[in-house]
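hey so i finally got around to running both of the ones u sent me last week. sorry it took forever, my laptop kept dying halfway thru and i had to restart like 3 times lol. anyway pasting them below in the order u listed, first the sequence line then the structure token line for each. didnt double check formatting much so if smth looks off just lmk and ill redo it

first one:
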Amino acid sequence: MRLYIADDTCSRAAQLVANELGIEHELVHFDVLGRSTSNGEDFMAVNPFAYVPVLRLDNADCDLVTETIVILSYLADQRPKACLTPRPGTLDRVKMDQYLAHVATEIAQKYIPLMRRLMTEEGVMFNKTKLLAAYQHFDDRLAAGGPYLFGKQFTVADAYVWGTLWNSRSGVDLEHLKNLAAWKARVDARPAAIKTLKEEADIVAQHKAQIEATQA
């Protein structure tokens, strides 16, 4: 498999799930601003909408899978014994899919206009209020049944929230959410998370060096 990522984006969640499951994958870094890739591919031919993650499969057609929650679920379904997501067709799976959709709409999509400085002052306050409400829900959930969002088992939901924790880049203060902070420390300490951050940093640095070499 080939996984297309960008620095500090929701593609980090897909990396983490792949590493948790021990699924071998080749990383390709996409420079969002310069539109180049670390392996020289034309990313617009990979995803014309120009966003990550994208997963290229090793099947005969080399199919491309997009959308974070779809990729997370697909990867988790390849290793069902790891229990990173419930079995398809069950009510538990519906609840997990519902939760992932909630993270996509109430977390990831609320951050993007804040990070890009695209909003009026009223819009900024609206999005920050929505984000704080979502994170308060996570904090309450962890207090009631932690150590992870779905109890004792680390799941794709934890990976997605971890991969979209962009509060420091967006001026959203989460210091008061102690359960969330403890949860983040637990996820950060997982070997797969440490591996994910190192691999991402390595390929970003490698691609940056490539770009600088072509500009010299």
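and the second one:
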Amino acid sequence: MSNPPADTSTNATLLQFNKIGAIIYVDMTWTTIGVSLLQIVLFGVLVWWLESPPALGKRNTLQNTFTPINTLLLVMILANLINIGLYYAFTQVSELTTKAALITISNAAWSTISVSMLYYSWYRGFSVVDSIAPRWMNLLRSILAISLILQIANTALASVYNLLPASNPIHTAALNWDNAIFVATGVLLIFFDFFTII
């Protein structure tokens, strides 16, 4: 008895493609979670040993361990872990209230990453900017404030469009505004980072 011919229809190919995409998504999610956990461990070890090396006889304190730069790096790692983990959980549940909570916290974590990158850049370069071009300091502080407000709006809009069906006109409007804010915050981040590096 011969095997039936393989189904080469578009639907079967699309179904296979979706199954492969789902497997890759799960693999990427768990890889990102694993790498984030490894980063937390490595961060802890490096900061503990580099900030207060025992060979120099320095005592570790919370003050010299959790400097603004170290704190921002840790916040970015933790926010990435929360963002990825909760977004994955969002895709796995069907109850609307749970989905709303998961996607809102996941989006807030993503916004936290973006704002942390700005503040990281600020702490890394503000003394240089202040000494070279002090007249630009007020503009850079304004960019920080505007970015924070835009990230809050981004979190709210992303939560709305992730929860509404695509056929809902509010979904489309929220998605469009979210994309516009995403681009605006990206431009602000690039400008800000570029300016503090120069």
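quick thing i noticed on the 2nd:
The CA atoms of residues 45 and 117 lie 22 Å apart.
anyway thats it, ttyl
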